[in-house]
Amino acid sequence: MKKRTVAYCRVSTDDKDQINSLINQKEYFIEKINKADWVNGGLNLEKSCGDEGIYADEGITAAKLRKVRKAYQQMMEDAKQGRFDYIVTKSVSRWGRVSGKAMSDIDNLRELGIGVYFLQESIDTLDIKSDFMLNILFAQAEEESNQTSQRCKFGRKKSAENHNWPGFAPYGYDTKNKKLVVNKQESEVVKRIFEMYLEGDGTLKIMKKLNDNNISPKNYIKNKKTAGIWYQILVRNILKNPLYTGLIRLHRTESVSQKSSKKKEVLEEDWVVWQDESIRIINNDTFTKVQEQIQIRSKEYSKTRHSNKHLLSNILFCGDCGSGFSRKKIHAYERKDGTSNDLGWELMCTYRDQQGKKICKSKLRPVVKEDWMVEQIKKDILSWQDDEYAKIETADFIYYQQFKLNEEQRNELPEIEKQIEKLNKQENLLFEEHSAGVMSQEFYRKKGLSIKTSLEELNIRKKNIENLDEQRKLVDKKKNEFIKAIREVNVNELSNQLLKQIYKKIMIYRDDIFLGEESEYANPEGVLFVPMYNFGIDITKKEIDDYINNLVEQDIKSGLINFKF
């Protein structure tokens, strides 16, 4: 009987040549699987998995095995579901360059009865004798990856020292032969941004003027929803960047390690810095004045900042775009004598307020009157107090069900400890064989590094599982604070701090389908608000109400509740 087979392929970057390589790999695997004779019974491509039986990752490095390789992760999940019997891949280096992780996944697949066949090395992982060779090959692949990473770091620094610009050109510039050159059209916009700021405009006002005049920033944002739109942070970054005075500063950060995408700061004395007058757009005097203004306005803003001054600050969020809500005074018609009615305050999606419909596409303007919103929150809190037992019992049940998933990790602990013990023995044996002169210094170093990496990762997993009790205590503390706040709160004496103990956030949806007479899912404001409670885990009002309603329906069907008319 032919074995259900899938293929895994990967290319490290997403440039055109590599994408072509990925297409070629797919065709290559289909042909190889159809003609396979290295496995008894042969192979059959399982087209219901991946993309027609092929799991493919583009632009991903093998060093970041589980973190970003989505196709690889999906393949491992499908393996647990028993969707195939064999995985075919081109070579050990395509599978992974971190030996501990790579071998761990192969062991997990083997326990599921799934084999991996490496075409280039002719290795079948269902043959237990393959482990020795695989460990060597993975150690070599990891060492190659380390060396490549070091070469890249060295190359980037040397390139900077040769006054080459890395990557995309900032706004106001283009790159030509790896050198920055001034973009005449964009440089005029940069000058105007500095002028507007010194004329008194803030970053918000400048941002709006740029967007209203259809001036687009450089489009590096992959999110289509937000591409081609100016934000305050983009304006602020231009105003604070000394590059526009011709001062170039490179090699200020570097990767923590080749396995991580995290960056660390480089000591200032190791920066690569030089002055290039040919790319100057802003004179020193203008730049200095802008920096002084930024400091002055920052101090003034910190005195008047109201993020935690009003009741619902940092609690309401837009259900359409996810932006927070800002508080604004409702302006009333001013009479001839200069008086006007006080219409109170409203809360509005910040993106919709600043960008119009460019980002937030909510059908109705996402705005709520503050007084109305406070009344809804009071009603929600009172509903907890009126039906405290049922709601807290329900939330408790959902809480324990979700936490049970984490508790299942404890079952992995014996296997992790077994692997640690096995690796410790391998490490001791390796030392003995090296001392006896059985192996070369180079092999001893590579193999030792591989074992050390695996031990470090397993010990981290072990520590995380052993810390589950501490995590549980922290979540319990959050839950108890929530229950205490619900029981003790006086809805007529609410504060922002108190509301944050009860609500993690409240999502606001506004649509004409919610317009109508006051009811559970309709109101004259056309607003649906979805509270997410600060219960230690994410629990919504709907989850609790649905669970209680379901229990009531079951009691009615079972005869525990009878209605008499």
Summarize the structure in words.
- The structure is a single chain.
- The model is unreliable at 62-67 and 555-565 (pLDDT under 50).
- β7 (173-176) and β8 form a beta hairpin.
- This protein has 565 residues and is an alpha/beta fold.
- The protein has 17 helices and 19 strands.
- Among the domains are: 3-154, Resolvase, N-terminal catalytic domain (Rossmann fold, 3-Layer(aba) Sandwich), CATH 3.40.50; 163-304, Putative Large Serine Recombinase, Chain B, Domain 2 (Hect, E3 ligase catalytic domain fold); 325-369, no CATH class.
Treating each run of at least 4 consecutive H or I residues as one helix, how many helices? 17
Provide the CATH top-level class of the domain at 3-154. Answer: Alpha Beta
The CATH topology label of the domain at 3-154 is Rossmann fold
Q: What's the count of strands? A: 19
Output the CATH homologous superfamily of the domain at 3-154.
Resolvase, N-terminal catalytic domain
User: Taking Cα atoms only, what radius of gyration do you get, to the nearest Å?
Assistant: 31 Å
Helical content stands at: 40-55%
